[in-house]
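Quick look at the format.
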Amino acid sequence: MNAAPTASRLHIAFFGRRNAGKSSLVNAVTGQDLVIVSEQKGTTTDPVSKSMELLPLGPVLIIDTPGIDDEGELGELRVRRAKRVLNKTDVAILAVDISGGESLSGPDRELTALFREKKIPHIVAYNKSDLIEDVKSLHEENSILVSAKTGHNIQELKEKIAGLAVSEEPERRIVGDLIHSGDLVALVTPIDAAAPKGRLILPQQQTIRDILETDAAAVVVKEFQYKETLETLGKKPALVITDSQVFDKISAWTPPEIKLTSFSILLARYKGFLLSAVRGVRAIDDIKDEDKILVCEGCTHHRQCDDIGTVKLPRLIKNHTGRNPEFVFHSGGDFPEDLAPYKLVLHCGACMLNEREIKYRRDCAADQGIPFTNYGITIAHIHGILKRSLEILPGVLAELE
């Protein structure tokens, strides 16, 4: 729990043409030989990621990408993969070989245009300054002369990255801003075959940490222990947070005066897409037999026999609607660009995706007019307890009234 999860780390990605010195720049900035460096073009064939602590930034994810000017059929695939990295990039560094002149190439200009289009803060790092005799200062605010070989201006580059990484938005909390010091919060966390061996899943870990940072107390129980625990506690919980898969049982066992919500709902709020998900879940009631539903997970994992995404949710939706739609399953870091065939995008909790990437996925659906929701909100809606689960969030609850 002391290690920052990948989704919570600042994602710093290095882009540029082949042999611009991207990989050398990554190694220079991190002070480690993270990626292979070679004079041969196209050494980096796939995006390479590394979680690390980088001063003065703290926990970050460094990403090195293939050359944006790669050629051939395989090269085009590499370029597409490099561009996909933009969907999760918080700060971009464009490496440019200044030994060939200060002007940006066509691929460089294409990248800077994409940075602006996607509103990604970026820096143009003119690399290999050690190879030119007359080193002039640059006037562009987001540019810097560097040398990965000699270390020239590498510290200044890191400081520029840190400056772009500073956000003026208030830090989001998972639950800490909804409770008070001294409150008691009950957490219902089933431990079944799908649970990771020897640990809690990430949203549960993060929620417990946030509760403790608020100086509140957390009581963690399995679902079959919940009812008895509730009866024996010295005081009523200010809030009950449950795993979505036992939402209906926990709702029935929780007195109406006790606030109830789920990890999934809190995580959607934390990631910034709760309102969209609450609006999107209504599409389930209009599903028809010929419709397609895209079920997306942000990570890949070994699926159990009663997997929530591929088994439980399709069964719930079919029983709820009386229809037999087609479910298309997608997992991992990629996301389909064409969503037109689908009536609904049903996403996991996105605990392994950073905020920018889940926002990209939500916006893709919005741009194409496709409703977007998540597992937990869908389960609450089907069981008729979505309104109750949002009572702790009046602004979002208003969407249902």
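Next, a different chain entirely:
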Amino acid sequence: MNDAQHTGALEAMLFAHAEPVEIERLADALRLSTVETEELLEQLQRRYDEQKSGLALLRFGPDRWQMTTRPYYGEMVKRILDTRRNAPLSPAALEVLAVIAYNQPVSRSFIEQVRGVDSSSTVTKLLEKGLIEEAGRLDLPGKPVAFQVTDTFLRVFGLGSLKDLPPLHDEAGEPNDSGADEESSESDAEQLEWK
């Protein structure tokens, strides 16, 4: 096989798999090294970007790739798919996702402490949608279940990893107006910190 055939085979495998795939599995199927396979994936990714293709290749972490549609075409893709069963996320669900994504792994009680309301039903719905998953148990009294976001969350929001999340206000380096605000935010952080 030449490079064009290998690239075609990569496209076919990524399209058929529909979930993130490890480079090692792709390389094994192509009978190439992981370095050669990664080079082909990066070339294909650049080609899609340069051609402004409706398809995009997303890289998850250091070793997993997935073919997706570009978010720009999301509305048109939704028109062709039956999305009536997939209700949009509520503001409460988006809040819970933000709490988990920025602080994971977190317990249900942490989520509720941050939001100030019971979040049990929202967490259950997000689990059903596959946007969050259980991430073991925390080393706290009662050994509460911890939650983290999934690859589906990253894909839905067009993120390659959690590093692509927009920075929080404090992380963006925005200066506080006074030292009182700084002390207040530090005491708030201490209250939310697990001890």
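The radius of gyration is 21 Å.

See the schema section for token definitions.
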